[in-house]
Amino acid sequence: MRRNKVFATGVAALALGLSLTACGTTEDGGNGGSDADCDVKLAFFGPETGDAAGLGKPIIQGTQLAIDQYNEDADCKVEFVKYDSQGSPDEAPALATEAAGDESLIGVVGPAFSGESAAAGDTFAEAGLPTITPSATNPTLADNGWDTFHRALGNDATQGPAAAKYIKDTVKAGKVFVIDDASEYGAGLAGIVEKDLADAVVGTDTIQQKQTDFSATVTKVTDAKPDAVFFGGYYAEATILVGQLRDGGFDGTFVVADGVKDPAFLDAKDAAEGTIITCPCIPDTEPAVAEFAADYEAEFGEAPGTYAAEAYDAATIFLDGIDEGVDNRADMLEFVNNYDDEGITKQLKFDEKGEPADVHVYAYTVKGGAIVPEGEIK
């Protein structure tokens, strides 16, 4: 699925000059051939294991697919490495230092989550290691002055208002209770939704990640008698929370965001039915991602999960640079900063803060035990 690219003139000229040296030579003086490895690596940074591994898996596989397709016809193979943070801000700094120390690593797809992005961002910036996250949505990440930071999807400053609009205009909830999980992502998103809903908010509460007893929160919700509950957090807690809310008598609409858009949320069974999920991630039913979805399913035996397509786009940006001869971090950073090309999820271009120029937010509903796309929230 390689495409013709449009690059800034300066970057294209630089890439042309580098193209003669990007690949190593074999002992017999050849160019390395189709089985040679270049001394360049791309990495995934995020949860491969742990409670949030379900959200990391599609990102890993989307990145893997892009690299595998590139390597099929490449004179020099790109190596894919993974840094398993388990989605934890506590694990991220040491892993970021490890990644930064590998000079052959010239691009990172990730970090996957907002908390680990905040914890690792300074290290990546100091090392000049460009990152493109396909999934971390806290708006403040772009305000840290990291020239290495890029985001391949809309942040929560767009998702939060879209969720609030959907709650007001489509769900038509007059009273809403807002809950967050105290994470950088969940608390930030819930705060935006709360602000946008304004007087419609009849109560708020904060839970903790890995918490399993939500009885105190359930009591607060049932006392407030809301039409809808919005939860800012991840699927591990949402799966338990929605069950306890239903058991406690809440019969309104449960509304969540991209951190819950994982098949594991369906373990809540009947309690999950009717849940609204917002996400700045394109549905695999959209024509633009049809070929990608087919290729993904052929390689991994399953449909693309949340942010698989965004990860594919992020990896493709780096691979396009490598294809043009870029073989070091400084040149890759310049290449990414000047990138402007059509991806499978959107037009891929970044502003001076690393935010995407093209943003879309979609709604999904849990129906019949499946997460079903409802369309873009305009």
Write the layout of secondary structure elements.
Elements (H helix, E strand, L loop, with lengths): L8 H10 L17 E11 L6 H21 L2 E9 L7 H9 L4 E5 L4 H14 L3 E3 L15 E3 L4 H14 L6 E5 L3 H14 L3 E6 L8 H10 L3 E5 L2 H13 L5 E4 L19 E4 L10 H11 L7 H16 L5 H9 L2 E3 L4 E3 L12 E6 L2 E7 L2
Parallel strand pairs: 1-2, 1-3, 3-4, 4-5, 6-7, 6-8, 8-9, 9-10
Antiparallel strand pairs: 10-13, 11-12, 13-14
Protein name: Branched-chain amino acid ABC transporter substrate-binding protein
Organism: Nocardioides albidus
InterPro entries: Leu-bd, Peripla_BP_I
Kindly describe this structure.
It comes from Nocardioides albidus. Residues 40-369 form the Leucine-binding protein domain. It holds the Pfam family Peripla_BP_6. Keywords: Signal. It is a single chain. This protein has eleven helices and 14 strands. It has two domains: 9-154 and 283-349, Rossmann fold (3-Layer(aba) Sandwich), CATH 3.40.50.2300; 157-279, Rossmann fold (3-Layer(aba) Sandwich). Strands 7-6-8-9-10-13-14 form a seven-stranded mixed β-sheet, with helices on both faces. Strands 2-1-3-4-5 form a five-stranded parallel β-sheet, with helices on both faces. It has a two-stranded antiparallel ribbon with strand order 11-12. It has helices spanning 9-18, 53-73, 92-100, 114-127, 156-169, 184-197, 215-224, 235-247, 290-300, 308-323, 329-337, and strands at residues 36-46, 76-84, 105-109, 131-133, 149-151, 176-180, 201-206, 228-232, 253-256, 276-279, 340-342, 347-349, 362-367, 370-376. The protein is globular. With 378 residues, it is α/β, with parallel strands linked by helices. The chain starts with 8 loop residues before the first helix and ends with a strand.
